[in-house]
Design brief:
Blueprint (H helix, E strand, L loop, with lengths): L1 E6 L3 H12 L5 E3 L14 E2 L9 E2 H14 L3 E3 L3 E5 L5 E5 L4 E9 L3 E3 L15 E2 L2 H4 L7 E5 L3 H10 L5 E5 L9 H8 L4 E4 L2 E7 L6 E6 L5 E5 L2 E4 L3 E3 L30 E3 L11 H22 L10
Parallel strand pairs: 1-2, 1-8, 2-5, 8-19, 10-17, 11-12, 11-17, 12-13
Antiparallel strand pairs: 3-4, 6-7, 7-8, 9-18, 14-15, 15-16
Bound molecules: NADP nicotinamide-adenine-dinucleotide phosphate (NAP).
């Protein structure tokens, strides 16, 4: 019987793997079939992760974390968790392949997923002018006019990055001030290719087979106007990825997995959660990594308390 299955492959998951592997719990990481590395795979330079004074590229950071986990013999499964059976003392994780992994504990670190605008044509035009990832798709917009929606760090980062390719980048924000960190705002303000459209939201997406523009709604006056665009990048935040557990674990009113105090203990014994999936507020690579540590230590204590008792017989 395995001790721990870790679901996810972002900073929380790999850090939990490093700690549990070094505690000789021989973790298996269910790292996803297509999205190994999580959100940081879609970022460029990470300047605020301690230990990298010259910054580190998001994908490089994630590769290093995985290598560090594998150095201590973490097993990695490149598949998705499709179904979970968490209620009993033996936790079962069914993979996309149909294989079932069993363990005495599970660390759930599935992160968060891009938020959508929820407008008609958004899904159809995804990949045809609409994108959620500047580093993946920016290259296709050389000398084009594009807009980034949002006012957080992601929007600033995406807009600044996209000026490498596009001739003009609008940032469309629904209020008259950004919530992004000052340094990232300033970088956008200082860039001549970027123009901010304040107090505006996207009311309509235009284009038949490819995006041709949007209709903007002025959030103060209610006036509408058209804006011709070749590309639209949506950077309006993320929602915790809880679809596998929403009927199995207690959630908070913000939609994150509820944990006990500062621990990673969820409403089900032996199930721990870490990273963006429990964090509605901070959601940084470094806080996710720290949260992975907490989950690993909690899992370690839980396994130790079970002792040598067979899990099916243990009182948990
Ligand atoms: P965020 O901080 O939650 O910001 C989301 C932005 O989108 C907000 O400005 C919000 O507007 C806007 N928004 C939300 N829903 C919207 C809607 N339906 N229509 C239009 N606008 C909408 O998300 P984020 O920028 O993705 O950042 C997430 C976390 O990652 C943050 O903690 C951030 O610091 C971190 N991050 C850090 C870095 C870095 O340090 N290098 C880079 C990227 C992200 P309001 O402001 O009006 O609410």
């Amino acid at each position: 019987m395995r001790d721990v299955i870790i679901i996810g492959s972002g900073p929380a998951a790999w850090t939990a793997a490093i700690y549990t592997a070094r505690a000789d719990l021989k973790p298996v990481v269910v790292a996803s079939q297509v999205e190994v590395g999580g959100e940081l795979m879609n970022t460029t330079e990470v300047e605020n992760y301690p230990g990298f004074p010259e910054a580190v590229m998001g994908p490089d950071l994630m590769t290093k974390m995985q290598q560090q986990a594998e150095r201590f013999e973490t097993e990695v499964v490149y598949d998705d968790a499709a179904e979970l059976d968490l209620a009993g003392p033996i936790k079962k994780v069914t993979l996309g392949s149909g294989d079932v992994l069993e363990a005495r504990s599970v660390i759930f670190a599935t992160g968060s997923a891009y938020r959508k605008l929820n407008l008609p044509r958004e899904d159809e035009l995804s990949g045809h002018g609409i994108s959620w990832c500047a580093t993946c798709d920016g290259f296709f917009f050389r000398d084009k006019t594009i807009a980034v929606v949002g006012g957080g760090d992601s929007a600033m980062e995406e807009a600044t990055f996209l000026t490498k390719f596009a001739s003009k980048v609008y940032i469309v924000h629904r209020r008259d001030e950004f919530r992004a960190s000052k340094i990232m705002q300033q970088r956008a303000f200082d860039n001549e290719k970027i123009e901010v459209i304040w107090n505006s939201e996207i009311a309509e997406i235009q284009g038949a087979s490819g995006l041709t523009g949007v209709v903007l709604n002025d959030t103060v006056t209610g006036e509408k106007r058209e804006l011709a665009l070749d590309g639209l990048f949506v950077a309006i935040g993320n929602d915790p990825r809880t679809h596998l557990v929403h009927d199995k674990l207690e959630l908070t009113s913000e939609g994150t997995i509820a944990v006990e105090g500062r621990s990673s203990r969820t409403s089900v014994p032996g199930v721990f959660a870490a990273g963006d999936v429990i964090d509605p507020t901070y959601r940084q690579a470094v806080t996710a990594a720290a949260s992975g540590t907490v989950a690993a230590l909690d899992a370690e204590h839980y396994i130790a308390a079970l002792g040598d008792v067979e899990p099916a017989l243990a009182a948990v």
